[in-house]
C-alpha cells in the first residue's frame, strides 16, 4: 500500500482529498494535517510514501516543506495540490522534487489519473536496457491530453464554474453561478449541465414557496 499524507489547511478540502485517496486501490491515508509544521513532524515519526501538498499553508509555503523533506533525507514523493498557476512556481516545484502538479479545484477523476500514474512509475523496477525504457518510465508521470470540450465552451470558464461550486458548500443555482463568474444564466447553466452530465456535479431540485423547483448543482466527491 502507498501511504499518503494529506496536507491541506481548509478542513472541507482536506476531508474531500482524504475521501478521494481512500477510494483508490493500493493507496491508504496515513494522516491528514493542516500546516507545514505538522506535515514535517508527521513525516519524521510515521512512514509516508507520498504527500498531497497544498502550497498556501498558514505557517509556511509548500516549497519550504519540500525543501525541508529533502534536507532531512526523507524519501517521500510530493504531489502539489494547489491553486497556484504561476509557471515560475511550477518550475520551482520541479526543482525541489515535486512529481506531479494538480490545480485546484479538481475532480476525483483528475486526482485518480495522477495517483494511477504515480503508482505505475513507483512499481517500475530492475535495470533498463536502453534510453527508450527510461523515457517510457518517466512518461508514465505525464498526463495525456484531455478530451476537447464541446464547441463554444472554454476551459477557463469551466475552471471558473468548478471553482465557484467548490467554494459553495450548499451548491449553486444557474443564477448563483452566473453571478459568481460574471456570465449569463444561460452560459452558467450550460457549464453546470456539462459537469453534471460528466459525473462531476450532481443536480438537486430546490422547492420554493410557489412554482416549479429550481435546479441547484453541487460538486460530487463520491464518484469520478
Task: Describe this structure as you would to a colleague.
The protein is globular. 44% of the residues lie in helices and 19% in strands. Helix 2 packs parallel to helix 3, helix 7 crosses helix 8 and helix 7 packs across helix 9. Strand 1, helix 1 and strand 2 form a beta-alpha-beta unit. The strands form 2 sheets. Strands 2-1-3-4-5 form a 5-stranded parallel sheet, sandwiched between helices. By secondary structure, it is an alpha/beta fold.
Compact description:
The chain has nine helices and eight strands. It is an alpha/beta fold and 224 residues long.
Task: Indicate the topology.
Layout: E1 2-7, H1 11-22, E2 27-33, H2 36-45, E3 50-53, H3 62-71, E4 77-82, H4 87-95, E5 98-103, H5 108-123, H6 131-139, H7 155-166, E6 172-173, H8 174-181, H9 185-197, E7 201-206, E8 214-219
Helix pairs in contact: 2-3, 7-8, 7-9, 8-9
